[in-house]
Known about the structure:
Helices cover 40% and strands 17% of the residues. The chain is of the alpha/beta class.
Amino acid sequence: MKDANFLKEHNARSLWHPMAHPADSLANPPTIVTGARGVRITDVDGHEVVDGVGGLWNVNLGYSCQPIKDAIAAQLDALPYYSIFRGTSNDQVIQLAEELRDFFAPDGLSRAFYTSGGSDSVETALRLARQYHKIRGDAARVKFLSLKKGYHGTHFGGASVNGNANFRTAYEPLLAGCHHIPAPYTYRNPFNESDPAKLAQMCLSALEDEIAFQGPGSIAAFIMEPVLGAGGVIVPHESFMPGVREICSRHGILLIADEVITAFGRTGAWTGSRLWGVQPDFMCTAKAITNGYFPFGAVMIAEHVAEVFEGDDTGRAAIGHGYTYSGHPVGAAAALACLDETRKGDLPANAAARGAELYAGLKDLQARYDLIGDVRGHGLMCALELVSDRAKKTPIDKGTIGRVQEGAYAAGAMVRVSGSNIILSPPLVLTSADVQVILRALDAGFAGV
C-alpha cells in the first residue's frame, strides 16, 4: 500500500466521490479507511473507532464474519461468474431462491429477481409493476406514488420517486407520472401536526386525495420505506403502512416496500413490512443480504403477482429487463452464508435491545444540548436532527454539524451527516459497551462545538 501522505494527497486527484462535490473532496480530504474488525474501522493513521454507520446501513454482521468470506473465496474457485439470462443458471442462485422463499414467506413473497444492489432493485420493481398491469390488460396504469422525504436510490426511476430535492433537481426532467404525498414526519410537516396517529391519518387522507385526483386506473404502484432511512430516519405511526396497504388494495394499486435498509433485522423485526404487519406486492432488498461484502440484491415478488406473470400465454410477461450481474454466483454464495449467520445470531432481538439503549442515550443528549431539535429511531436506525434555534426549528449550518461529526470521530465513533441530521445505523452485532462508546463520542462532539 502507498504511504498515508500519498493517499491523502491523491484521493480526489483522479477520483470523484459519490454524494459529494468534487471541489469539496479536493479541499477536504475524507477519512481513508484501511482496515476493519468486528464493529470497528481503522483509518490510514491507525485511529480505530466504532462504526456507527455500519458501512452504509449494510454491514449488519460486522467486519469479521468469516463464513461469508469463506463462501466468497470458495465460490471464486468453483465458478467466479456466469450469467443467468435465459438459457443458463447456476447452483448458488437456485439454492438461494429457495432460502429466500422460506425467509420471506411471512411477508407473502415467494419469487426472487436478482439485482446488483438497491437502486437496481427499485428500478426492477417499478418496471415489473408496470408490466404486471399490462399483462392484465390494464395498460393505463403507469404512474407511481411515493412519499416526500423517501429515498429510493439513484437510477432515473428511483430518482423520480425519491422525495428529496437533493437527488432530483440536478437531473430533471425525470420520469413522468411520479407524484408525492407528505411523509408522516412529526417534526416537520405541512399540517403542523405533532401527534403521530393524527398525522398518519392526515397523510393517508392526502394519499386518497392524490389517487382520486390522478385517477385510480392510472396508477401502477405506491413505493415506500417501512421506516424512512436516508430522509432522516422517519418512523411512521404503526397505523400508517397498514393504512397504505388497505388503500392500495382497494384501488388495485401495487405496494412496493423498499426494504433495502430495513430487511434482515435492522428495525428489530426480520423485515420492516413484518414490523407493521403488512404484506407488500414487491419488496426491494440489497445491502445486508450479503453483509456488504459483495454487491447483490433481490426483488421479492408476491405469489399472486407471480401467478399473473407465470400464467400469461400472450407473451406480454416476457421480462425484457436484467443486469449483467443479476444472479452473480459469488454474490449468491455470500447471501446464502449471510442469511445463515443472520438467522443464527437472532439479529432483530439484538437490534431492538441495543436500539432502545441507543435511543435512550440520544434523548439524554437532547436534554443537555439545545442543538438537538429532534431524536428519532426504531431498532438500530436512529437520527438526531440539529437546529440552531430549537423554538424556530432552524436547520443547523453545515460547518457546525461537520464539527460535531469530527469531534465524535476523534472521540471514538464514526457517525454520518445527512443535511441537518446525524444518522446512526451501526452493525446489528453491536454490544452495550459499543453503544456507550458511540454516545460518549457524540457527547464529546457536541461539547466541542
